[in-house]
Amino acid sequence: MAKWKPMKRHPNIYEYPVKNGKKYGIRFTYYDAEHKRREYKKSGFIDWQEAEVALHKFQNDIDNGFVNTLNNRNTTVEAYYEVIRKRSVDIGKWRPATIAQKDMYFAKHLKPVFGNMALTDISRQQYQHFIDSEVKDGYAKTTISTINSVMQIIMNAAERNDVISKNKLKDISIEGAKEPKPAKLEPQDYQLFMKTAREYLSKYWYTLICLLALGARREEISGLRYKSLKFFKQGGQEACEITYDMARTRYEEGGAKLKNHASYRKNYVTGELVELLKFSLQYSKNICTQCGRQYNNDSFLFVMEDYGEPIHPEYPNKIFKKVERACGVHVYPHLLRHYFATMARSNNFSPTDIMHWLGHSSLTMTDSYTRPTKQGALKLINEMNGTLFKPNNGK
Question: Which residues form the Tyr recombinase domain (predicted)?
């Protein structure tokens, strides 16, 4: 083994001979959470400057709490998951819904098998056997992929922070799992569902269905407030600007951030939708008045008719079930989002306009740098009105 020689004036940096000259390495001593002496060692740098940059980064990571100072040899999967979870919560990286999802998959699938195992003891063969067992148990490919993503978060962070030398579980194979059912809705089924919704629901709840048919996410509709709607005229045509800037989920009923930066957007509607929104805004205010509840511009648009409280974020599913029982067509809120995207693409609308309308983060990296325009959005909705909202006597 090559002898490491400390470099003068460069603490913790060493040089050592190799076949074609010399290379540089790091040896840095620090103390773990159990107050035990540990050494960070890394080699293979082509010059001392590169080694020094890596050393300073490691020291800064320790100071900022990015390096796990648990004893590497004894750190279990569960212990390190808790380290990652705490940091992700502290810096706001994981939303409550994300935390709940990851906690559930970890507790149900990963913890029983790997929770008490040391990170360094998990072999690729063991983990592949676990994945294959999940396949045999009948879990869908999407479910297994999500389970695997939680494990990869743990192992990648452990490698990045030098808790383990290498993530041996990368690029694990998920073969033979059930493919998810395609989110598909035939035009005739869509028309029957919408026709039934118009006939069976009140005007207020039909408006909610229409907004979802425009491709908005359920949590975005639940988060609409009075100030989210702005009515105006464009070239003599009445229109409404809808601002999406808040989400309500079962974990954050009071309101929270949207899914990503691209989700913050303004959509524009014309035609019957303007009248439906005007009606729903006034109807919501009437409900609050009748229930003795005060309202203002921050009040939520959709409230329960009996007591004026904002609807539960999952309440739209109950409305959909009511329509489904009447017409026999199974539709759920997110399926209408897929249908909007499918029909918009099939009608040859600009992919970039559709991307901005739906609040997707990108089609390609270039498209992600573009910005939506009112003209493009109004053109899109004017042409989509005939496809999505046919009159009662339409065939």
Answer: 180-382
